């Protein structure tokens, strides 16, 4: 008589693996033997695939490694809101205890017009902790800081995580705010701006997300988030021709929906193309911090490309983008900003030039600043997290970014005697790129009533629309520019060849336009007959 199979309860993570392998064509019989369950059980998982996957995308990875059922809380929305608040507070390093969570649950329930009989009992707290994989609150009751001991411990864990990846397959992404019109506080233009009614250029901001791999061989285009879906300066422009991935949000912050869109539409396709081009396996790892604006790890998965969170108390020590990369990017941008403002133009003051700036100018400058971020700096930024990499051991000469920026600042009226502290103060005005959620924001987010993604149609200063350029005028202008470069004494053969390629592009577009007009006229003639 065959022995009776022992009952086995598989975790949600195991169920996901089975479903994934079934999708790839493996047999249910083979999987049932491997995981120690019956074929009927696997068939049930297959029927409930949507429910299992949906639950896992909104649950932490640690939780699905332990849980076996998809049973949700009877206070599902409150549960989600409470966890969003918890994540945000932990990211800031604020001490959290069980009674504090219970009190916050009561406050959120009231905001959500919840069940008046809800008491946030100890049983509710225990079940909530289990659902989200929070094992104890003694640790989370301590003040978080840049913890060197935790960083050392994580390095050992990180070695295991990346053991099967090459430096070309491991990426880091992080966002930062950019107050793109802010000037050194000592400058006369900044003082004039503060006294100008209704014009606060130092409050105009964008969010910029940068991403690169550890070998610095794949720098993805920046993601830039503005307030308006299509500012006037983008009128008649082909948005796909921008050197960045531009999106909008009502307050120009990063949020979960935008990050997920960037991951799906930018990160995954570009990483797959890079891996294929370089003969690498189709897999990659994206390291990000555990900010409230980032979705759960399970939502950031596509085939063998996935994201993982860095522990919140080691981010400032280990995250590569925080090791001077984003700072250098913003310094490069501000150098270009000052050079533009200091150009000789007797008709316009510095304040006039600043008011004339628009989002398009900023986007091209910040894209160029990213382009100018050197490979060595990107590689060096991984030294704390991945010290075994050979290239990070190289000693690079000290950067001259601060020195160059200080010289430009000193040319600004009112800043003639500025010192390095002035530059540091100026470059520290930017925020982290994601908004701190209030309790009302959290409730709106989980109830689906947030309007953050709505387009802001307000126009920035200087957002003049771009006129449509006729094909013939563009072709003539390119021919004239080619003649100018060919006649210039400092022009190199590379410059001339570059201009000739541009002229070729112009001629091709002109020919296409002519052919389209001929086809339309022919169609019109035939229809009139």
UniProtKB/TrEMBL annotation:
InterPro entries: CenT-Element_Derived (IPR050863), DDE_SF_endonuclease_dom (IPR004875), Homeodomain-like_sf (IPR009057), HTH_CenpB_DNA-bd_dom (IPR006600), HTH_Psq (IPR007889), RNaseH_sf (IPR036397), WH-like_DNA-bd_sf (IPR036388). Keywords: DNA-binding, Nucleus. One of its GO terms (cellular component) is nucleus. Residues 66-138 form the HTH CENPB-type domain. One of its GO terms (molecular function) is DNA binding. Residues 1-52 form the HTH psq-type domain. SMART domains: CENPB. Residues 28-48 bind DNA. It comes from the Eukaryota. Belongs to the tigger transposable element derived protein family. PANTHER family: JERKY PROTEIN HOMOLOG-LIKE (PTHR19303:SF16), TRANSPOSON (PTHR19303). This is Jerky protein homolog-like. It comes from Erpetoichthys calabaricus. The gene is LOC114660603.
